[in-house]
């Protein structure tokens, strides 16, 4: 197994009663770039998020099967990585400070880390495209340079496996060539799994291709063979049209009765399975976010589902409080802290409400924020909580909540508030 970094066997991932991904067996080659390709919503991002445990932050998620990480041999292998498998998610960016400061954010010794960074950059030809920006504020840098900074931050950590989810999404066309050059230079240095919808980009950088559609692994092949001689009809259709989906089911008329295999049931029956709550744990079992209870279902049923998840305190961020009427919230305490849609609160008021909520947290109670859609105001308050009570920098707090849900924190006004709160608004 020296040439295999990661093995996935019998993997099933689902939400509620629906299975969304099935992988019988997949071996990821060491120090190669493996691209996950397939139509939109085929299961590619589900796989990479599962590898770092992000799907488990959704209460209705379930999974079974095995994932085996085969660590590289050698004295320096994995010595710096706090997480052996790391993810740079979709839409990732930097927010403040210089590019150098952002790259070194996870490193304990600036002098030693600076020397390591300089040595690392010198080994990549593509670094010439952004070396001149190292000591500039990231607000002056292109999105491609943000992504390069995040990549080199991860490389300094020396993970066993690096996951890149659509690394060129929203990058300017003028920057695509050098970004692809940078990704190509990862070959032979690090085990990389890259999600991409762009077949031309995959052809330029990937050693191996894994084709996923309809939540199923269909084909694995060296990149050149996949594009020149795909083995499956679905892969050939995908290369021609960009879309290919397996038949939803095989009818009993198509096969002999003894060959009919009924799908296996979900291995667990998670709480809130039948409720659309938009719920995510940001700190598992302690801190979470969701959309407004009663938005898509009945309020009483939604609150009962939330209570079943172990939520003790529900913070309402909408302009008006929840209209409980005769609804009994059960054991949930509801706190109202109104914020206008797409806007940010007064910093002093935010400081006070977080101080009050800290009392509840210190008592061991679990805390969930919600606004209407469960994204903008909810993401803002989740990030501020992480700054105030987990000691995170504002940059890392935003990155953390956006790993959980890329749509958390919806407006630039809200981003600016979190950044300012991290500077002078901490209780």
Q: What keywords describe this structure?
A:
P-loop_NTPase; phosphatase activity; 2 domains; Prot-tyrosine_phosphatase-like; 13 helices; six-stranded mixed sheet; alpha/beta; Protein-Tyrosine Phosphatase, Chain A; Rossmann fold; 427 residues; five-stranded mixed sheet
Structure description:
By secondary structure, this protein is α/β, with parallel strands linked by helices. It has two domains: 4-241, P-loop containing nucleotide triphosphate hydrolases (Rossmann fold); 280-424, Protein tyrosine phosphatase superfamily (Protein-Tyrosine Phosphatase, Chain A, Alpha-Beta Complex). The protein has 13 helices and 14 strands. The protein has helices at residues 44-51, 99-103, 110-122, 143-157, 173-184, 199-205, 223-228, 233-241, 299-308, 347-362, 376-390, 394-404, 412-424, and strands at residues 4-15, 18-29, 33-37, 61-69, 85-88, 161-165, 191-195, 208-213, 216-222, 280-283, 287-290, 313-316, 333-336, 367-370. Strands 5-6-7-3-8-9 form a six-stranded mixed beta sheet, with helices on both faces. It has a five-stranded mixed beta sheet with strand order 10-11-14-12-13. Helix 11 (376-390) packs across helix 12 (394-404) and helix 11 runs parallel beside helix 13 (412-424). The protein is globular, with a radius of gyration of 23 Å. Mean pLDDT is 90; it is low at 249-263.
Overall radius of gyration: 23 Å
Q: How large is the count of helical segments?
A: 13
| Total number of strands | 14
In total, the number of domains comes to: 2
Strand order of the largest sheet: 5-6-7-3-8-9
Q: What is the CATH architecture descriptor of the largest domain?
A: 3-Layer(aba) Sandwich
Q: Looking at the structure, what is the overall shape? A: globular
Oligomer: single chain
CATH superfamily of the largest domain: P-loop containing nucleotide triphosphate hydrolases
CATH names the topology of the largest domain as: Rossmann fold
H-E string: EEEHEEHHHEHEHEEHHEEHEEHEHHH
Q: Determine the N-to-C terminus distance.
A: 51 Å
> How much of the polypeptide forms β-strand, as a percent range?
15-25%
Domain Tyrosine specific protein phosphatases: 351-416
InterPro entries: ABC_transporter-like_ATP-bd, P-loop_NTPase, Prot-tyrosine_phosphatase-like, PTP-SAK, Tyr_Pase_AS, Tyr_Pase_cat, Tyr_Pase_dom
Keywords: Hydrolase
Domain ABC transporter: 6-239
